[in-house]
Amino acid sequence: MRPSVVFTNVVNPCSHISRRGEFQPTRVKRGATIGAATILCGIIIGGYAFVGAGAVVTGDVPDHALVLGVPAAVKGWVCDCGQRLSDSSLSCSPCKAVLEKIGEGVRRRDESSPA
């Protein structure tokens, strides 16, 4: 059995008012994992991000972010392979990938970029 995810489609739902013209898209990028969570409309879940069970996502989630809680907040980083990374090294022991901080997020270090 897989956990279910709730995706909302309007910002201000009201059962007796039709809001079909206000539907907003939600994007889930490649490799993202979502536990039993609620995702508000208009959100982007970044590539290889991990949304923990029970989280309520109210804002965009950066690539490789681990988000938990209500409202969801970045609590760490995950590799493409799903392994939680140490904040100090951002390197993955199982698959040997190395990520690097960029702004508020992280990305996988390109082998051609300088270390």
Cα(first) to Cα(last) distance is: 42 Å
Overall morphology = elongated
The average pLDDT value, as a whole number, equals 88
Parts with pLDDT < 50 across at least 5 consecutive residues? 111-115
Helix content: under 10%
What can be said about the biggest beta sheet? Answer: 5 strands, mixed
Q: What percentage of the residues does DSSP assign to strands (E)?
A: 25-35%
Q: By helix and strand content, what is the structural category?
A: mainly beta
Number of strands: 12
Count every helix, treating DSSP H or I runs of 4 or more residues as helices: 0
CA-atom Rg in angstroms: 16 Å
Order of helices and strands: EEEEEEEEEEEE
Tell me about this structure.
- The chain is mainly β and 115 residues long.
- Helices cover 0% and strands 30% of the residues.
- It contains no helices and twelve strands.
- It has strands spanning 6-7, 27-28, 33-34, 38-39, 44-45, 50-51, 56-57, 65-68, 73-78, 84-85, 99-102, 105-108.
- The strands form four sheets. It has a five-stranded mixed sheet with strand order 3-6-8-9-10, with no helix packed on it. Strands 1-4-7 form a three-stranded parallel sheet, with no helix packed on it. The chain has a two-stranded parallel ribbon with strand order 2-5.
- It is elongated.
